Protein backbone atom coordinates (compact mmCIF):
# COMPACT_ATOMS: atom_id res chain seq x y z
CA UNK A 1 0.00 0.00 0.00
CA UNK A 2 2.92 2.39 -0.09
CA UNK A 3 3.43 2.31 3.68
CA UNK A 4 7.05 1.26 3.24
CA UNK A 5 7.61 4.15 0.81
CA UNK A 6 6.08 6.56 3.35
CA UNK A 7 8.41 5.13 6.01
CA UNK A 8 11.45 5.30 3.73
CA UNK A 9 10.73 8.95 2.92
CA UNK A 10 9.65 10.16 6.36
CA UNK A 11 11.50 7.85 8.74
CA UNK A 12 8.25 6.82 10.41
CA UNK A 13 5.04 4.97 9.66
CA UNK A 14 1.82 6.87 8.98
CA UNK A 15 -0.17 7.35 12.19
CA UNK A 16 -3.36 6.49 10.27
CA UNK A 17 -4.08 5.07 6.84
CA UNK A 18 -5.74 8.38 5.95
CA UNK A 19 -2.28 10.01 6.14
CA UNK A 20 -1.46 8.08 2.97
CA UNK A 21 -3.90 10.18 0.90
CA UNK A 22 -3.22 13.61 2.40
CA UNK A 23 -2.02 16.38 0.10
CA UNK A 24 0.24 17.92 2.76
CA UNK A 25 2.68 16.32 5.16
CA UNK A 26 1.30 15.22 8.51
CA UNK A 27 3.10 16.64 11.54
CA UNK A 28 3.90 13.22 12.94
CA UNK A 29 3.88 9.50 12.31
CA UNK A 30 4.82 6.47 14.38
CA UNK A 31 8.21 4.96 15.11
CA UNK A 32 8.73 1.18 15.09
CA UNK A 33 7.52 0.99 18.70
CA UNK A 34 4.30 2.92 18.02
CA UNK A 35 5.43 6.18 19.66
CA UNK A 36 4.83 9.55 17.99
CA UNK A 37 7.64 10.64 15.68
CA UNK A 38 7.98 14.02 13.98
CA UNK A 39 7.85 14.22 10.21
CA UNK A 40 9.90 16.82 8.35
CA UNK A 41 7.67 18.24 5.63
CA UNK A 42 10.47 18.26 3.04
CA UNK A 43 10.97 14.48 3.52
CA UNK A 44 7.33 13.77 2.70
CA UNK A 45 6.59 13.11 -0.99
CA UNK A 46 2.90 12.22 -0.86
CA UNK A 47 0.19 11.59 -1.38
CA UNK A 48 1.20 7.95 -1.33
CA UNK A 49 -2.22 6.67 -2.40
CA UNK A 50 -5.02 8.24 -4.42
CA UNK A 51 -7.59 6.57 -2.16
CA UNK A 52 -7.58 3.98 0.58
CA UNK A 53 -8.88 0.69 -0.79
CA UNK A 54 -11.36 -1.49 1.03
CA UNK A 55 -10.58 -5.06 1.97
CA UNK A 56 -11.89 -7.02 -1.04
CA UNK A 57 -13.02 -9.93 1.12
CA UNK A 58 -14.93 -8.04 3.82
CA UNK A 59 -15.69 -4.86 1.81
CA UNK A 60 -14.67 -3.00 4.99
CA UNK A 61 -11.59 -1.03 5.99
CA UNK A 62 -8.34 -2.93 6.40
CA UNK A 63 -6.93 -3.33 9.91
CA UNK A 64 -3.90 -1.10 10.49
CA UNK A 65 -1.63 -1.94 13.42
CA UNK A 66 -0.34 0.95 15.55
CA UNK A 67 1.47 -1.03 18.25
CA UNK A 68 4.78 -2.85 18.49
CA UNK A 69 5.95 -5.25 17.17
CA UNK A 70 3.71 -4.85 14.10
CA UNK A 71 3.52 -1.07 13.62
CA UNK A 72 2.52 -0.27 10.04
CA UNK A 73 1.14 -3.71 9.27
CA UNK A 74 -2.02 -3.92 7.18
CA UNK A 75 -4.22 -7.01 7.47
CA UNK A 76 -7.54 -8.19 6.17
CA UNK A 77 -10.51 -7.26 8.32
CA UNK A 78 -12.45 -10.33 7.18
CA UNK A 79 -13.34 -13.05 9.62
CA UNK A 80 -13.27 -16.71 8.70
CA UNK A 81 -10.99 -18.70 6.44
CA UNK A 82 -10.29 -19.03 2.75
CA UNK A 83 -10.86 -22.24 0.75
CA UNK A 84 -7.48 -23.57 1.97
CA UNK A 85 -8.56 -22.99 5.59
CA UNK A 86 -6.09 -20.12 6.02
CA UNK A 87 -7.52 -17.38 8.27
CA UNK A 88 -8.19 -14.15 6.40
CA UNK A 89 -6.65 -12.34 9.37
CA UNK A 90 -3.24 -13.65 8.27
CA UNK A 91 -3.45 -11.93 4.89
Written description of the protein model:
The structure is a single chain. With 91 residues, this protein is largely without helices or strands. The protein has one helix and four strands. Strands 1-2 form a two-stranded antiparallel ribbon. Strands 3-4 form a two-stranded antiparallel sheet. It is elongated and about 45 Å long. The chain starts with a helix and ends in a 16-residue tail after the last strand. The model has no long low-confidence stretch (mean pLDDT 94).
Count of individual helical segments: 1
What is the approximate shape? elongated
Please give the radius of gyration in angstroms: 14 Å
Assembly annotation = single chain
Unreliable stretches (pLDDT < 50, length at least 5) are none
Mean pLDDT value? 94
Task: Break the fold down into its secondary structure elements and pairings.
Layout: H1 3-10, E1 28-30, E2 36-38, E3 63-64, E4 74-75
Antiparallel strand pairs: 1-2, 3-4
Q: How would you summarize what this structure contains?
A:
This protein is 9% helix and 11% strand.
